[in-house]
Design goal:
The protein has 166 residues and is α+β, with helices and mostly antiparallel strands. It has three helices and five strands, in the order H-E-E-E-E-E-H-H. The termini are far apart.
Length: 166
Amino acid sequence: MNLVTLLPFIVLIGAMFLMTRSAKKKQQAAAQMRDHMAPGTGVRTIGGMYATVKEIGDDTVTLEVAPGVHAIYAKNSIGAVLEDAEYNRIVHGAGDDLTIDTPVVPDDASSLTLDKDADKDADKPEGEAPKLDLGKKDEPEADEPKADEPKDEPKNGKADGEAGTK
């Protein structure tokens, strides 16, 4: 046979050998990393959730995902075992390099509006809130009866729900 026809097959077999070898190395490294887990260690799952290891079984691990909340995961779902300092920095925000560049938003909207009427309200007593005009009128509309007047009867003389003939 010709060596030129066998060369692509030899390259393909060699590439497959290298890929399986690197995959085995990755699996061994992941298994070794999981062996370093101990109760109290911070971990990140392959889904991206950060938790603390509580118990380790043969194929499972119990994680505390929130204070008092425990979940059981497969050991294979652990993506990384974290150092204590890194886990605390990520989960609790602890660290000297943590700075917040975003503005702080207040709990109410009062500080977000300009206080145009501050001069008008300065002479009022401290506990008294200014009156707001909400568009309500003290007098009833012309169509509405006053509280002491009886309501008008319907135009057809029938009460609601009464059947009648025309």
